[in-house]
Design goal:
Number of helices: 22
Number of domains: 1
Structural class: mainly alpha
Distance between the termini: 35 Å
Order of helices and strands: HHHHHHHHHHHHHHHHHHHHHH
Largest sheet: none
């Protein structure tokens, strides 16, 4: 029965899910059609909102492109490639391989989401390269399901944001917060730990059970197994000497190492963000490749996979602009209309669950966690306060709502897909199954929280 359900999901996604770029264009159209009647704004006004938001994710787009390119360059260095090949040789069966990829990605994403996205995909790719009868699509999908742990982990943007109170936090919570909420009340609360541990146990098992029959297994594309052998040019000129100089690489590593030491000594390892992850990937990559020209070649090879990120992220910025665009006369935005609709039918007992559902829906249109919080935080936090629900619980319902529908939103899968050389259709069928399986735990916990059985 389970395999039939998995096969049906995979088949349906293969037939009907368009390329992620077309997916975000369709979402743009749906947002526009919803916003005009629900907010009372005209086509021209919504187009202006779309244009105002179009470049809103520009910095983030560059950061995500660098996550992919720098992470890939680091992984292709001889020492890391050797380590990954060793780790990839450990699992001997499809069940063991899928479970190990899921666990590695899940733990890495809990530590830092950018790190987890890259490490899980690279590890899955190395396992597939061994030539065993492991389904490559499911390996990459399993790596992506590990991303579920992000928001509830050490790099969760909202728990870390509300743990450091300032005027921005006050504005993003609609004035509800007047002091910091420590991570002991969010990340390390029993209900969050129950979700994290429950998913860590459940998802490796679910993913392993999805492995296709032997005749249906899809192996890695042989073209991805080709590795160019680099033959260094003899240092016969000042230019070639500098290109092959380890001293220049060490100089870069020294500068970056001082910056990271200063950062971590003040903020701690848990304060990793995209910029520090990318700097870490860069200096480790430069060090392990040995010479500047080797690293340049590795970067050039990885750049092609970032095309989807550079093309699609501005369109999601435009969607975010339409979702948050206010009608100047009524003060309504599409995000506010949707959030208010859920709040209107909520009670203090049902609010944690219904708030979670409202966030899952809006996440399909604004998959950027920080971007969605800026739009939805000022709406749901006052609504929760009015119902008498603790701000930390409302914030964590947002956290898991944002995380859950990432399983069917290709936005965050783009770095992993770029590394893997796959398309969204290849993995999203498996991710639909993961969505339903993980939902059982998350739904149950927030219902229990609402009725006071788990806090």
């Amino acid at each position: 029965m389970f395999r039939k359900f998995t096969d049906a999901c995979v088949s349906m996604v293969q037939k009907y899910l368009p390329d992620p770029f077309l997916f975000c264009i369709i979402l743009t159209g749906i947002t526009l059609l919803m916003a005009i009647p629900l907010t009372g704004q005209g086509f021209f006004q919504m187009t202006v909102h779309w244009g105002n938001g179009f470049w809103g994710l520009l910095m983030f787009s560059m950061q995500m492109a660098l996550v992919l390119v720098l992470g890939n360059a680091m992984a292709t260095s001889p020492p890391v490639s050797k380590l990954l090949r060793f780790l990839a040789s450990i699992p001997k069966t499809p069940t063991a391989a899928i479970m190990m990829v899921t666990i590695v990605s899940y733990i890495a994403s809990w530590i830092n989401w950018g790190f987890g996205l890259v490490v899980g995909a690279l590890y899955a790719r190395e396992i597939a390269k061994l030539g065993k009868r492991f389904d490559y699509r499911l390996l990459i999908a399993s790596a992506y399901t590990g991303f579920l742990s992000w928001h509830g982990g050490l790099s969760g943007s909202v728990p870390l944001m509300i743990a450091s109170y300032n005027d921005t936090v006050k504005a993003q919570t609609g004035g509800v917060l007047t002091a910091s909420i420590p991570i002991q009340d969010t990340i390390f609360r029993p209900y969050n730990i129950v979700i994290l541990v429950g998913l860590l146990i459940l998802m490796p098992i679910v993913n392993a059970k999805m492995h296709p029959r032997d005749e249906d297994v899809v192996l890695i594309n042989p073209d991805l197994l080709k590795e160019d052998e680099y033959i260094p040019e003899k240092s016969t000129t000042p230019a070639t000497w500098m290109e092959n100089s380890r001293l220049l690489s060490l100089f870069v590593v020294f500068l970056g190492g001082v910056v990271l030491y200063n950062y971590f000594s003040k903020s701690g390892f848990a304060a990793l963000n995209l910029n520090t992850v990318n700097l870490l990937f860069l200096i480790v990559g430069v060090l392990l490749h040995g010479t500047p020209i080797r690293y340049v070649r590795a970067i050039n090879k990885g750049v092609a996979g970032a095309g989807g990120i550079l093309l699609q992220f501005p369109f999601y910025g435009g969607i975010m602009g339409m979702m948050s665009g206010l009608n100047p006369e009524t003060g309504l935005s599409l995000a506010k209309v949707i959030s208010d609709a859920f709040a209107a039918v909520s009670t203090p007992q049902t609010w944690p669950f219904l708030s979670f559902l409202s966030c899952t829906f809006i996440n399909l249109f604004i998959p950027s966690g920080g971007g969605q919080w800026a739009v939805q935080g000022p709406i749901i936090m006052p609504a929760g306060q009015t119902l008498g629900v603790a701000p930390a619980i409302t914030a964590m319902s947002y956290v898991w709502g944002d995380s859950w529908t990432n399983m069917i939103q290709p936005f965050w899968a783009l770095p992993a897909l770029g590394i893997a050389g796959l398309g969204a259709r290849d993995i999203m069928g498996f991710c639909v199954v993961a969505l339903f399986a993980s939902g059982i735990i998350i739904w149950s916990v927030f219902l229990l929280v609402g009725f006071g059985f788990l806090v």
